Amino acid sequence: MHPCRVLFICTGNSARSILSEATLNHVGKGRFEALSAGSQPSGRVHPAALEQLAALGMSTDGLASKSWDRFAQAGAPALDIVITVCDNAANETCPVLFGPFVKSHWGLPDPAATRDAEALGEAFRKAHALIIRRVTALLQLPVETMHRDELQQALDRIATITDDEATA
């Protein structure tokens, strides 16, 4: 498994999954290839997501809101890990995916749902801090040598990293 291909999925593929894709591609070069998609893609990447990534020097080239259907079609790239980042607490519908990949749910609130313009940037910084913490934990795993069950358990443990830990 080299590089380990990870698909991040959320509802609109405009914020959380985009931040996750760009972050893992930035820090996991060589070992990981990150992709993202949405169950109901918005058709655009949220400008605050692009601003957050640019502020940390992470590339935004090629980022686009797209449907997860493209990864279920014949000829789609083989996936090793699929991570949903929808927020079940907000009653978002996360897609049900079938395949030989390892699946985990790393739910987090949608910063794009923030309606207060002044709070929007902080919502994106907070969401991205949590994503960075979780991606950092993923990078520490020896995914190349882990058995499927071990990887599943490790990914599910990463999902329990909280906002408090992300900002500590």
What CATH architecture would you give? 3-Layer(aba) Sandwich
DSSP strand content: 5-15%
Query: What is the helix fraction of residues, given as a range?
Result: 25-40%
Question: Helices and strands, in N-to-C order?
Answer: EHEHEEHHH
Number of strands: 4
Total number of distinct structural domains = 1
Report the end-to-end length measured between terminal Cα atoms: 33 Å
Low-confidence stretches: none
* Shape by Cα distribution: globular
Biggest sheet: strand arrangement: 2-1-3-4
Identify the CATH class: Alpha Beta
Q: How many DSSP helices? A: 5
Main structural class: alpha/beta
Largest sheet: 4 strands, parallel
- The averaged pLDDT comes out at 89
Protein name: Arsenate reductase
InterPro entries: Ptyr_pPase, Ptyr_pPase_sf
Organism: Rhodanobacter glycinis
Pfam family, one: LMWPc
Structural features, described:
Keywords: Arsenical resistance. Residues 4-141 form the Phosphotyrosine protein phosphatase I domain. This is Arsenate reductase. It comes from Rhodanobacter glycinis. InterPro entries: Ptyr_pPase (IPR023485), Ptyr_pPase_sf (IPR036196). The protein has 168 residues and is α/β, with parallel strands linked by helices. The chain has a single domain (4-167), classed as Rossmann fold (3-Layer(aba) Sandwich), CATH 3.40.50.2300. 36% of the residues lie in helices and 13% in strands. It contains five helices and four strands. It has helices at 16-27, 47-55, 117-139, 148-158, 163-167; strands at residues 4-10, 32-38, 81-84, 102-105. A four-stranded parallel β-sheet has the order 2-1-3-4, covered by helices on one side. α1 (16-27) links the parallel β1 and β2 (32-38). The longest helix has 23 residues, at 117-139. It starts with a strand and ends with a helix. The model has no long low-confidence stretch (mean pLDDT 89).
